[in-house]
Amino acid sequence: MRRAVCPGSFDPVTNGHVDIISRASRLFDEVVVAVGVNKSKSRARLFSAEERMAMLTDVCADFPNVTVAGFEGLLTTFCAERGIDAIVKGLRAVTDFDYELQMAQMNASLTEVETVFVPCAPEYSFLASSLVKEVATFGGDVSALVPPHVWTLLTERLAERAREDQQG
Ligand code: PNS
Q: Is the Cα torsion angle 7, 13, 17, 21 positive or negative in sign?
């Protein structure tokens, strides 16, 4: 049984993430999508850990060998506890590679977990959750970049935030 993890913040999940999860689900027997819930970054998030996990559970419903879990602390600890021997990461461009290589080597030095890099589909090479949020905040159309349900939730959350900002 080959188990892999697709880790990330997923704030929110994009079509680029879905592409990598879908391809990991074809390469491995079981895939766990692991949502980082480290508290240090929680204030900067648009969606709570529970909301991000619910979105991913909805989006991954069509992949029978994919489950969603939250994790806190080290990714290698999560992998060791669950008998996961591979970390799947999507690479958008060479600019991702430096940091991803550093993390892969650090993780391999902590345990024997392997990192498998999957080149992202060219149509997603510019896609990042942070940019999706920024563009949507200023009224840009990101409906083609995230799953439809996520787009609805994103639009609602940004409208809530805008109302809160107006009220001071
Ligand atoms: O979507 P992101 O923000 O690029 O995801 C980054 C994530 C959550 C995969 C990464 O920050 C991570 O693995 N965090 C867990 C803490 C950890 O293990 N840090 C050491 C990495 S070498």
A: positive
Residue with tokens 């991803």: 100
Three state DSSP letters for the chain: CCEEEEEECCCCCCHHHHHHHHHHHHHCCEEEEEEECCHHHHHHCCCCHHHHHHHHHHHCCCCCCEEEEEECCCHHHHHHHHCCCEEEEEECCHHHHHHHHHHHHHHHHHCCCEEEEEECCHHHCCCCHHHHHHHHHCCCCCCCCCCHHHHHHHHHHHHHHHHHHHHC
- Catalytic-labelled residue, pool 25, 89, 129, 133: 129
Q: What is residue 93's predicted lDDT score, i.e. its pLDDT?
A: 92
Per-residue pLDDT, 43? 62
pTM across the whole model = 0.95
Q: Can you tell me the distance from the alpha carbon of 121 to that of 113, in angstroms, rounded to the nearest whole number?
A: 25
CB 12 within 8 A of CB 120: no
Give the Å distance between the CA of 129 and the centre of ligand 1.
15
